[in-house]
Design brief:
Distance between the termini: 48 Å
Shape: globular
Number of strands: 10
Helix content: 25-40%
Mean pLDDT: 81
Low-confidence stretches: 44-48, 175-196
Strand content: 5-15%
Number of helices: 9
Order of helices and strands: HEEHHEEHEEEEEEHHHHH
Structural class: alpha+beta
Length: 279
């Protein structure tokens, strides 16, 4: 039995839903039967109906405490290839404040209640008791991982766990972004829905999508956060006027998947950005 499998079984026995991560600290991709959400998704995802796939191919939504599933043949093959163990914090009623650098840690020590801490490669995980919506880049170097997210298991950490405070919940509450009008309004062809775009040109949109693709492609670290921030930026500029098409969205998703993101991660990031902006 591999070390990762032993760790996963111990966590599952304590009520923490687990999943294997492959090289690059990313979940295993969809199997052919589940590609493009053909299976209907997992029961705890915002999709229609359960997935009968026996493998861990649904990222955070595949996390489980079922010992029989973890021991099943598809999962055992995944554990043999796994580079790390991950868990679904929200499924264990936990919230992880991911502090990615020394500045973020300094900020947390001044701002947030002390709680259990776990050292990471570049910073720390602060773990609170209680679940909340996940949110990337709530401030520089800080992500929140709880529901609909996964975190790497890096050990039990030190210190007593504190009840999730309002100070952490408030980090995920942002004012909706507003679109700044261009100095000179430019008329463009009618968009889907019969509206018009009074502030941008098709050329501007095309250039913006290209720059967004380049930003995602250039990311060497924090790919999840970069993808979300890029989607958020595109939607805050073009999401309200109806200019964006499925073709634009596909270009962004393709760029993200080329960096190792799954189609499900892309969909979640896009949906979260829409929700954040109230679209």
């Amino acid at each position: 039995m591999s070390e990762h499998l032993r760790t996963a079984l111990a966590l599952a026995a304590s009520g923490v839903p687990v999943l294997p991560l492959r090289k690059g600290k990313v979940p295993f991709g969809n199997c052919p039967a589940c590609a493009d959400n053909a299976c209907g998704g997992r029961p705890n995802m915002k999709t229609s109906g359960p997935c009968a796939c026996p493998g861990p191919c649904h990222a955070w939504a595949a996390a489980t405490t079922n010992i029989h599933v973890i021991h099943s043949a598809p999962w055992r093959r995944a554990w043999q290839r796994a580079s790390a163990v991950a868990y679904h914090p929200g499924g264990a009623r936990l919230t992880v404040v991911d502090l990615d650098n020394a500045d973020a840690i300094t900020w947390a020590r001044k701002t947030l209640p002390a709680t259990r801490t776990v050292p990471t490669t570049r910073g720390q995980h602060w773990i609170y008791w209680g679940a909340m919506p996940s949110s990337n880049a709530v401030r520089p170097g800080v992500d929140i991982k709880s529901t609909m997210a996964y975190a790497r298991w890096l050990g039990p950490g030190t210190g007593s766990m504190t009840e999730l405070p309002d100070a952490v919940r408030a980090l995920a509450v942002r004012e909706p972004s507003t679109v700044r009008p261009a100095p000179q309004a430019v008329a463009v062809p009618a968009v889907v829905g019969g509206g018009g775009c009074p502030h941008r040109t098709p050329t501007y949109l095309g250039r913006g999508i290209t720059m967004a693709e380049q930003r995602i492609t250039a990311a060497s670290t924090a790919v999840h956060a970069t993808v979300y921030q890029t989607f958020l930026a595109v939607l805050s500029t073009h999401g309200r006027c109806g200019c964006l098409t499925d073709t634009h969205m596909a270009r962004l998703f393709t760029a993200a998947q080329a960096k190792g993101e799954t189609a499900r991660h892309c969909t979640d990031a896009w949906t979260n950005a829409l929700t954040q902006l109230g679209l």
